[in-house]
Design a protein that fits this description.
The protein has 263 residues and is α+β, with helices and mostly antiparallel strands. It folds into two domains: 60 residues; 185 residues, no CATH class. It is built from ten helices and eleven strands. The strands form four sheets. The protein has a four-stranded mixed beta sheet with strand order 4-5-7-6. The protein has a three-stranded antiparallel beta sheet with strand order 1-3-2. Strand 6 and strand 7 form a beta hairpin.
């Protein structure tokens, strides 16, 4: 089978990516000739080498953008990498309806070790790691190319808070967090606190829930969880080198910045 025929067959099956191993298994050409063919189609912009041995197919309807929506290939990529993942942070927020700007970068959370970010002309993927892999709060959504994994609204919110210093700070994401809070289900939050290890992020979440006037039931669940465990004062924004001072709220959050919606 020629490479062009192989790609047509993939697209007919709503598959938008492939590995070199899959290609070799279906072609009579030797590896050198296939490498030449891959290079030719890469130059034409019909395929993109994403990781070593893994390619994206760019069909005509996506040729102007020169990239694919990540949901069309993320699951297959991580099966190829043999690694746990979920689409998270700002990318997950978009799927939950909480996005105030066109996000050009994709955000993926993986199990350790950390993957190198992917930055090409049209593709920008940033990887984060979760040292304690979620036992719950990862849900499955469906795309034209099949299923993919994504953090639910509760995990998405707490991940944003936990990684705030790497993502532009709490004010940049404040409007998104506020919208995400409307999507958090009581059962999702109970699932989250049953395994989530970062108490400081839960403290900040509780504080923000009160400030943004989230559902009282959600606040009560977090309140009940924290009152039975030991926790210490934290800064709302940990970007500075200062240490938490006196706190006058249940969450023991030192409000060291003025909350302002940057969006």
């Amino acid at each position: 089978m020629y490479l062009s025929d192989f790609i047509k067959e993939r697209l007919s099956l709503e598959e938008y990516s492939f590995s070199k191993d899959e290609l070799h298994a279906t072609s009579q050409k030797d590896k050198s000739a296939l490498t030449t063919d891959l290079s030719y189609l890469t130059k034409k912009g019909e395929i993109i080498p994403l990781r070593k041995g893994f390619y994206l197919i760019i069909p005509p309807r996506y040729s102007r953008q020169g990239k694919l929506p990540i949901e069309l290939y993320i699951d297959k990529l991580f099966k190829y990498l043999k690694k746990d993942y979920y689409l998270g942070l700002y990318s997950a927020a978009k799927f939950h309806g909480a996005s105030h700007q066109q996000i050009q970068r994709d955000y993926i959370v993986t199990a350790p070790p950390t993957l190198l970010d992917i930055k090409k002309a049209t593709i920008d993927i940033r990887f984060f790691t979760a040292s304690n892999w979620p036992q719950k709060n990862i849900i499955t959504k469906k795309s034209d190319a099949g299923n993919f994994k994504i953090s639910d609204a509760a995990l998405t919110t707490v991940d944003l808070i936990y990684h705030q210093t790497k993502l532009g700070g709490i004010n940049r994401m404040l409007a998104i967090i506020e919208e995400l809070m409307e999507e958090i289900k009581l059962g999702n939050l109970k699932d989250l606190i049953s395994w989530y290890p970062q108490r400081s992020a839960l403290q900040r979440l509780g504080f923000l829930m009160e400030e943004l006037e989230a559902d009282a039931q959600l606040i009560d669940v977090l309140h009940d969880h924290l009152k039975d465990i030991t926790y210490f004062p934290v800064l709302l924004s940990p970007e500075s080198k200062e240490k938490p001072g006196a706190v006058d709220n249940f969450w023991k959050v030192d409000v060291n910045i003025k909350l302002e919606n940057d969006l």
